[in-house]
Every structure is written in structure tokens, then in C-alpha cells.
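Quarterly update, task 2.4: adenosine-5'-triphosphate-bound model.
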Amino acid sequence: MTRPFNRCGMMGLMQSASDPVLAASDLTVSYPAHGASPEHIALDGVTFTVAPGEIVGVIGEAGSGKSTLARVLSAEFKSTPNKKVAPVITGGEARLFDTPLRGRVSKRRLAELQFRTAFLPQDAAMQLPAEYTVSEILGQPILERDKRFDRAVLGRHVATLLDAVHMPFSALEAYPFELSSGQRQRVALARALVLGPRVLIADEPTTGIDVLAREALHELLRTLRDEKGLAALVISHDFALLRHVTSRVIALHRGGLVGLDAIDSLLQDRTHPYLSALGANEEGGTA
Ligand SMILES: Nc1ncnc2c1ncn2[C@@H]1O[C@H](COP(=O)(O)OP(=O)(O)OP(=O)(O)O)[C@@H](O)[C@H]1O
């Protein structure tokens, strides 16, 4: 897959090849009190790193803080319009490409970070703009940055991406409402990858996708990791993905990190009741 913006000078984001791409250090994140709701601590003292070219998984029960972790480490929370419902780092630190996210981040640095970071939220498939075709949706991020980008190169890039997410070329002219939810999810992933990010933060990227297409996505993530050095943090309950794509998996429970290991080792781990339950449920295929 070609990277359309190789020449973009990211001087502020220069780091050595071994520096972590993502880092949480004793990270505590809260949602401020609003209305009748008191302050809520969503993550409490979480520490881990993701190295360049490493794919780390995240599992945990509903409400354990997975999406909050993704919103914070992707820096998405820095540009949330409604500050009343945005998470706030109240302890420790989170770093994206070595940029501390706790304090103020300049608009320019935030734009640089967002250029290098693909964030695929849980509802990404629902957020595809209804009035554009798949081809337009995939080309948009590139044309927003360079209106005069060569249309033939763009067309090839978009078609390659669509193929990589296991979608037929006939989908290029389709509108989102004409696609199944699994196909929309794949278009959302393709769009997240269109600028050739250095890191992907994805919240349940294979939800609603059939087994064959899932395997194609696993393969795509492995290829991007091995050939382009893509780093990723992937929230997922897809055990095949956790086994075949991630090197380590973070287990969250009520905002705390209760395990960090290869998935098969986590499933053997009995040091926390959540991990014991996870291991016991594995045969049923759910996490
Ligand atoms: N805007 C908000 N204001 C207050 N509390 C919130 C807000 N968003 C999430 N929370 C709370 O923070 C905690 C962590 O939520 P989060 O969405 O990160 O969990 P999750 O593990 O991703 O859950 P799920 O698997 O259901 O998506 C939950 O208790 C949730 O209710």
C-alpha cells in the first residue's frame, strides 16, 4: 500500500526507532461531574507501552475503561467539542509519539499527531457520511490535505485499500446505506488507514464482520505491522485477532490493569477473578 504523504515533515514528532509510540504511565482518567452525575474515575493507575511495529490488544468487561483508554491515547479527547463529557487525565501521564497529552497540546502539534494516528471509534461505521460514495469517502482525507492530488494515483490507492479490506471494486460507487453493517465497518477501517498512519487505535474493528472478511483484516493488520512498522492498540473480543495479530493483551477491570501478557498466557492466568472467568469462558468463544 502506498503512503500518499511521505514528504510531510513531522519535525515535532521525530523520535528514535525504539521509543514507544504509545505510553501510559500510572494513568488515571476521570469524567468530570456534570448535572446530577458525580465525577467518575474510568481508568486508575494504568501503565504500559506500545513499541513501533507492535500490536497490543485490550480486553475487559463493559465499562472497564477500554474506550476511554482509546480516546485518551489517540488524543481524540483533546478535540472533543463537548468538554463536559470529555475524559480528563487526572493522574500520571499518557504519551502519543512522545507528546505528553495531560497538559496543553498546541493546535499544530495536535494536527501532526492526528495525521500520524488513525482512530477508529466503536461507532465509526455509523459515522460514514451518508451523502458520499465509498470512493469519495476514502479519497476525502487525502483531498482535504491536497485538492490537486493526482486523481489517477488516488483512484489506485483507494481501490488497493478497498481490496485490502476484502471489499469488491463494485462497492466504490455505493453509498453507505447500500452496504451491510460489516461492509460499512470495513470501509471505516479503510478510511482510517488511507493516510498511511504510524499507529492505529481501533475500538472493536471486526465487530459485525463475517469470518472470511475478518481473516482478511487480520492479514491486513499483520502486513501493515510487518511491512510498514504499524503500531496498534486494538480493543477486541475477537480471539482469533488477539491470537494471530497481537503480541500482548491488556486486561482491564473496573479501570485498573489486571493483566498484560500474550493472550494464551492471560487465559491461563488465575491471579485475578476477571482473568479466571476469562479463561473459563474461552471455550465458549467470548471474552
Ligand atoms: N461521558 C461520560 N461521562 C461519565 N462517565 C462516563 C462517560 N463515558 C464513559 N463513562 C463511564 O466510564 C466508564 C468506562 O467507560 P468506557 O466506555 O471507557 O468503558 P468500555 O470498557 O469501553 O465499555 P464498553 O465495552 O461497554 O464499550 C464506564 O463506567 C462508563 O459508564
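Highlight for this quarter: The chain has nine helices and ten strands.
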